[in-house]
Amino acid sequence: MNFLYTLFIITPLIINIKIEAQTTDVVTGLNNPTTIAINGNDLYFSEARGNKISKINLNSSLPASSTIDVITGLNLPDGIILNGNNLYIAEWAGNKISKIDITQTTPTAIDVITGLSGPARMALNGNDLYIVEWSGNKISKIDITQTTPTAIEVLTGLSGPLAMALNGNDLYIAEYSGNKISKIDITQTTPTVTDVITGLSGPNGLTYIGDDLYISELRGNKISKIDITDTTPVAIDVITGLNGPSDLYLNGSDLYIVEAFGNKISKLNLNTLSVNNFPKKNLIKIYPNPTSASVNIDIEEVQSDVNLHLTNALGQVLFIKNYTSTNQINFDIDTPKGLYFLQIETDDGETETRKIIKQ
Fold this sequence. Notes:
- By secondary structure, this protein is an all-beta fold.
- The protein has no helices and 33 strands.
- It has strands at 19-20, 24-27, 33-39, 42-47, 52-57, 68-71, 77-83, 86-91, 96-101, 110-113, 119-125, 128-133, 138-143, 152-155, 161-167, 170-175, 180-185, 194-197, 203-209, 212-217, 222-227, 236-239, 245-251, 254-259, 264-269, 274-275, 284-287, 294-299, 306-312, 317-322, 328-330, 338-346, 351-358.
- A four-stranded antiparallel β-sheet has the order 2-25-24-23, with no helix packed on it.
- A hairpin with an 8-residue loop joins strand 21 (222-227) and strand 22.
């Protein structure tokens, strides 16, 4: 079953911090776009129902609906990735990876490896091309320097894996059916899977901006992000109200977004984001943290009324009260050990969320 053609309704628990953002359309009128790649001024994208790869010139003055077919006659293309002049294509229904030379006027698709199980997205680490096999619930890899590559299983037993992103030796995996991001260390002979964050809504696209991992959530119709340096990351909504986001790609300060159900590609200029994180992060002090008894809350330069909301990891509200200079949170002996979330909110709706660990 192709994930792009079926919608499920799930209401996950997630802690959100609000960010105001607005997208602009880059190209419209597509035929179920799935993934993108950028080479210079050329933006390449797969059109699953169109069984083709198309492109537009980002500097062109032509209308946003003007596209150029690069290659047609593919078999449900999903993931694409560039390596030099070669564009690798995951043909989902063809159960294979093919490639084309983008310098050719009329490219010819060459099979790289066949016999896969619903290949979706790819990630490149040197000569190793990592491949998500959706139908096989696994990740495999091939050496693209080999004339006839052999697929090597890297990891099995996943829950509807769709996308990957490498950060050093860590391979982050979007498990669409599992509604989570997991990761492995690719240097391990037998990698151990670690859950990074759960409770997402159909994650299916990943990209990095510094320490932030941006995630497209297809069923949630939004882009969220997490800080991968956090021990227990909290998902922050970057932009909502999208139409089936299936992939994202950072180019300069622009975040390009594939909206599969909207049949378009849009973009978000990250420089225009207005992040509501009052008070300034360096003016909020919560200590000691972790704690076994209580924490003190100090907020400098308070300009308006501030409310404190404390919730547990299940999202249950433990208290809501106004901030004063003597605020303290007491955890009595019966309070369960674990993770708690303190949301600091001003009367004009700006928020900042901090984690507190009860030992």
